[in-house]
Amino acid sequence: MQPKTVVDDGSEDLFRSRLLAMIDLRHELVKLAKALDWSVFDEAFGPLYHESQGRPGLWFS
């Protein structure tokens, strides 16, 4: 199953830090993640997942 789409309404949760506030955007892995074409992976592995069976994926924003 594909992860559910999360709508960001801009409100901050008082007791949770935003992920972007915790990671270093200059880190090599962050740069690599931005450089990759993720749609290639979605096309390659998408047929292996079923939309109505199994546990839904988690979406972190």
Helix and strand arrangement:
Blueprint: H1 19-22, H2 28-35, H3 38-45
Explain this structure:
With 61 residues, the chain is mainly α. It has a domain of 29 residues. The chain is built from 3 helices and no strands. The longest helix has 8 residues. The protein is flat and about 35 Å long. The model has no long low-confidence stretch (mean pLDDT 79).
Number of strands: 0
- How much of the residues is beta strand, in percent? under 5%
Shape: flat
Helix amount: 25-40%
Low-confidence stretches: none
Please outline the major beta sheet.
none
In whole angstroms, the N-to-C terminal distance is 18 Å
What structural category arises from helix and sheet content? Answer: mainly alpha
N to C succession of SSEs: HHH
What is the typical, i.e. mean, pLDDT? 79
- Helix segment tally: 3
Radius of gyration: 15 Å
In short:
With 61 residues, the chain is mainly alpha-helical. It contains three helices and no strands.
Question: Keywords, please?
Answer:
61 residues, mainly alpha, 3 helices, 33% helix
